[in-house]
Structures are given as structure tokens and as C-alpha cells.
Amino acid sequence: MQATWNYCTQVPGVSAYATLTGPDGVAQVVADEIIAPGDATNIDDADGNLIGLSIVQGSSTACASDATKTWELKTNLYCDASVTGAATVDSVSIVDCSLVVNMKHDDGCATLDVSEYLGWLSENEWAIGILYLIIGPCLALFGQQWFPWVTASLVAVFVMGTICSLSLAFGWMTSTTGTIVVLVVALILGVVAGILVRRNIKIMVALLGGVAGFFLGALLFALIANFSGWTAVWGYWLVSSLMAVVGVVLSYYIGLTLVLISTAFVGSYLFMRSWTLFFPGHYPSESQLMNDAANL
Predict the structure, then answer these.
(1) Would you tell me how many other CB atoms lie within 10 Å of the CB of residue 74?
(2) Mean pLDDT of the chain
(3) Parallel, antiparallel, or unpaired for β 88-95 and 66-79?
(4) pLDDT of residue 281
(5) Tens digits of residue pLDDT in 43-52
(6) Which residues contact 81 (CB under 8 A, 6 or more apart)?
(7) DSSP code string of the chain
(8) Distance, first Cα to last Cα, the chain
């Protein structure tokens, strides 16, 4: 069988990052998951020394030899400081239901023990889920009644959430210290943003429309990514930003009606997202969509 894989873009003709092609010429999907923050695990030698990193990308393709498993691509990137250009492929093999690729590169010489220092927040997304679970229903049910406070709080939460998602995407929260610093900065900037918009009702309405539009854009892109496999990060920002602009424009024309619609939608969206954080893996998070930088 012929193995084909690509970490930067999906294999042409199929929505997958790795395939196996048999004698009949039919390509079987081996991996269709993007590489997200926190996916890497350590490869240690017999003495416990870190010698490389391993990344597994799964799929929904059933394995014929074991009905309880699905196909996956396992990449073992071993440390070799002398290889700084294209990675050297040592071997490609099929082990059970895994396409195993062993490579060497300087990037495998990790300076961070990822097993020990995975960001707490990236491993415990339920913490954000609890926050969304509390805020979502309150925002959806009482958004118009508590408009000034709700909008200021929503802007603050939006700023904090965006900062945390970007930080996760860029790997700034892979250590405990980094996570604490990012959370403190996000909290300060979020509170400041909330206080500033609370002083001007026109700005509040416009920003409410923009935030609602951005969330709607994120939801639309998540649906597009799920059904088409298109996960280009520029597409995420384009769709979300365009919808945010549409929300700001609509706020100028329909004002109070937008407040009612926006708070109901954003509150419902946060409530829905809270459950996807309690049961991760079935819905692409904002940080995962932002992190697909290879598809810029």
C-alpha cells in the first residue's frame, strides 16, 4: 500500500491529512484531525531522557483488522540537531491500525517537557465551560433587561476569551507560569474594556452587535470546517470578522431589536459551547481553529 501524508494541507482529492492507497487505487483516510495545542507527548529513552516528540492524528475510518479501533497517523519526531531543513524520514510502517512515520529533525529536540508542562487550561477546558454555563442562560434570558451591565460584562468576557484562545493557539499557555500571566492580563484588559464601554450607550450597542456577529461567524466557520474539512485560519478570521462588521452595521439600523437578538443568541451560544468544553473532541474549539496556522 502507498502512504501519503501532509502536515500543512490536506491531501488533494480527499478531506484528510494522511491516506493509504491500495492496489485498486482507492485512497483510504487514515487521519483527518488537525494538530492542536497540547497534542504532543514525550518520547523518552530507557533512562528517562527526552529524545523526541510524538503526535497522533486520528480519523473515523474503521480498521478492518480490529473493529474496536479506527485508523490514525502517528508521527514520531526524534531529536537530531544536525537536521535543520526538511525532516529526514527514517521509516514508514503500518502497526495494527496506525500509520507510523519516524522522522528526525532539530524541532524534535524539545526544550520543554510537554508531559509535565501542558497548559492547565488547555487540559481543563471544563473551567471555561463552567463560566459559559453560568453566563449563557443569564445573558439569554435577561440580556435586554440588564442591558448596560450585560453588554459591559459580555465585552469583558469576549476580550478575555479572545486573549486566552489566541494565547492557547500560539502556545503561550503551555506552562503554569504562562497560564497565570495570560489569565491575569486577560482579566485586567477585559475589566478595563467593560468599564470603558459602560460609559457610552452607542458604543455598547455597536460592540454588542460586533461581538454577536463574531460569535455567529465562529459558529458558521465551525460548521464549514466540520462538513468540508476546510480549516484555514485566515478563513476563520475572515468569516468571523465579516460577521462582526455586519453586526456593527445592523446595530446602527435596528438598535434595540439587535440588543434583544444579540443577547439571546450569544447567551445561547455560550450555553451550547459550555457543553462542548465538558465533552471535548467533537467540536473544534476557537483555539484549534486559530491554531491551524499551516493553512494560512
Answers:
(1) 19
(2) 76
(3) unpaired
(4) 56
(5) 888 877 788 8
(6) 106, 109
(7) -EEEE-SSSPPTTSS-SEEEE-TT-PEEEEE-PPP-TT--EEEE-TTS-EEEEEEEEEEEEEETTEEEEEEEEEEEEEE-TT--SSPEEEEEEEETTEEEEEEEEGGGS-SS-HHHH--HHHH-THHHHHHHHHHHHHHHHHTTTTHHHHHHHHHHHHHHHHHHHHHHHTTTTSSHHHHHHHHHHHHHHHHHHHHHHTT-HHHHHHHHHHHHHHHHHHHHHHHHHHHH----HHHHHHHHHHHHHHHHHHHHHHTHHHHHHHHHHHHHHHHHHHHHHHSTTSS--HHHHHH-GGG-
(8) 31
CA pair distance 254, 257, nearest whole angstrom:
6
User: pLDDT tens across 172-190, in order?
Assistant: 765 667 778 888 888 898 8
Give yes or no for residue 201 having a pLDDT over 70: yes
Mean pLDDT of 256-282: 73
> Which is nearest to 118 in space by CA: 39, 34, 35?
39
From the list 240, 210, 206, 246, the residue with the least C-alpha distance to 223 is: 240
**Which amino acid is it at 158?**
F
- What domains lie within the chain, and their CATH numbers? 2-114 (2.70.130.10), 118-295 (no CATH)
Residues in the chain: 296
Q: Bigger pLDDT: 214 or 24?
A: 214
The pLDDT-based confidence of 102 (bands split at 50, 70, 90) is very high
Query: Are the C-beta atoms of 22 and 95 separated by less than 8 Å?
Result: no
Q: What angle do CA 119, 120, 122 make, to 5 degrees?
A: 65
Exposed / middle / buried, residue 86 (Cβ in 10 Å: 0-12, 13-18, 19+) = exposed
Instruction: Answer for the pair 53, 77: CB distance below 8 angstroms, yes or no.
Output: yes
